[in-house]
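Priority: medium. Attachment 1 of 2:
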């Protein structure tokens, strides 16, 4: 028995010695390796350990046939293989209008104004000179004209029909888009009719039909329902067609999200919701596949173009819609996106021109055909400096 105990003890001692020997031997080697790597210059051609080869001129060479940088080596080649371009005709320029006889800067949107009908024409004149020929109108309506049923939205003598006629008289070839929604005219600030604090769907559609018809009669080329009521595209298409306006297009706000990026726009129109929010009809920002459902419905109901709003935070939705349908895709570069770029540029944190042009290119790359942006005129001016497109 004692012999077994002695034998077991010797085995433990030998094992401990072996482990201690390994620790003593390995630790200095590791330390020495670190010391060498910290002090010696790395040699990419070291015999036996070479990680690079040399070409026939004894220069460093990484053997590879495919080198994507060859198509980036100068501007001529870059412009030759560029997948997307941005040009003035890609834009729809949003204009805020009011019935006062002066233009008023919007504090949360630097260099954007509520235009009088006179200064609206002056702004369009300048924008057209730089190649912008499409405009969308957004009215600021006096509070005394706002009602729960938004009747002012289809007043034939209202500000939008009046503005359309003035523009068409002076610029017959300009494309006029109108916003079809009740919130600028609603005493409740919602995109539909409110009954017992509920935004009712079908009654709202009846009012939207009247509004769309009034815009078409005034000369609108495209009506753009932004309300997100179920079934409104088909109902507006039927209303337009029944009145003989089969050539008036519908730009559907297909994927309009209940976004935090709309604040400055609501400042401009004084159209903040009178209660609650718009989440019962605008889309949940967490949802992407839901946009495909809306797109399928809008296509089936007769939409001619589909819009995603906001734009930049929803590039993935733009791409989904582009691959889901053959209709043109529009993106709205909304007021909050505009205001952020302006604020960062004012602080000197961004080069405004470079950042804005990159943003517009991002829209095109994601699959956008049409861009609504408050930067439209400024981008057109910048593009004129670079040959008319980027």
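Attachment 2 of 2:
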């Amino acid at each position: 028995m004692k012999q077994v105990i002695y034998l077991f003890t010797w085995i433990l001692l030998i094992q401990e010695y072996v482990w201690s020997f390994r620790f003593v031997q390995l630790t200095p080697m590791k330390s020495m390796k670190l010391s060498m790597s910290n002090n010696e210059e790395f040699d990419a051609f070291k015999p036996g350990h070479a990680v690079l080869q040399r070409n026939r001129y004894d220069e460093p060479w990484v053997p590879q046939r495919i080198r994507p940088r060859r198509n980036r080596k100068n501007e001529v080649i870059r412009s030759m293989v560029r997948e997307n371009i941005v040009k003035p005709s890609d834009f729809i320029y949003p204009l805020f209008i009011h019935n006062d006889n002066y233009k008023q800067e919007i504090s949360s949107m630097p260099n954007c104004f509520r235009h009088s009908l006179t200064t609206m024409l002056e702004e369009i004149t300048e924008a057209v000179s730089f190649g912008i020929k499409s405009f969308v109108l957004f009215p600021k309506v006096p509070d005394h004209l706002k009602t729960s049923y938004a009747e002012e939205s289809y007043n034939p003598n209202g500000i939008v029909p009046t503005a359309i006629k003035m523009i068409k008289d002076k610029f017959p070839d300009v494309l006029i888009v109108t916003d079809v929604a009740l919130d600028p005219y609603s005493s409740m600030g919602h995109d539909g009719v409110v009954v017992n604090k509920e935004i009712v769907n079908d009654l709202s559609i009846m009012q939207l039909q009247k509004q769309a018809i009034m815009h078409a009669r005034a000369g609108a080329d495209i009506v753009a329902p932004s309300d997100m009521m179920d079934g409104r595209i088909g109902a507006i298409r039927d209303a337009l067609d029944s009145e003989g306006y089969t050539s008036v297009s519908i730009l559907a706000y297909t994927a309009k999200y209940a976004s935090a990026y709309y604040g400055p726009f609501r400042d401009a129109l004084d159209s903040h919701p009178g209660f609650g929010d718009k989440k019962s009809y605008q889309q949940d920002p967490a949802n992407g596949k839901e946009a495909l459902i809306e797109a399928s419905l809008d296509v089936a109901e007769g939409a001619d173009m589909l819009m995603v709003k906001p734009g930049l935070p929803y590039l993935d939705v733009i791409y989904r819609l582009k691959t889901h349908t053959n209709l043109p895709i529009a993106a709205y570069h909304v007021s909050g996106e505009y205001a952020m770029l302006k604020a960062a540029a004012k602080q000197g944190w961004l080069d405004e021109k470079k950042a804005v042009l990159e943003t517009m290119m991002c829209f095109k790359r994601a699959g956008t055909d049409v861009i609504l942006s408050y930067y439209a005129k400024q981008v057109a001016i910048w593009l004129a400096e670079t040959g008319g497109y980027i």
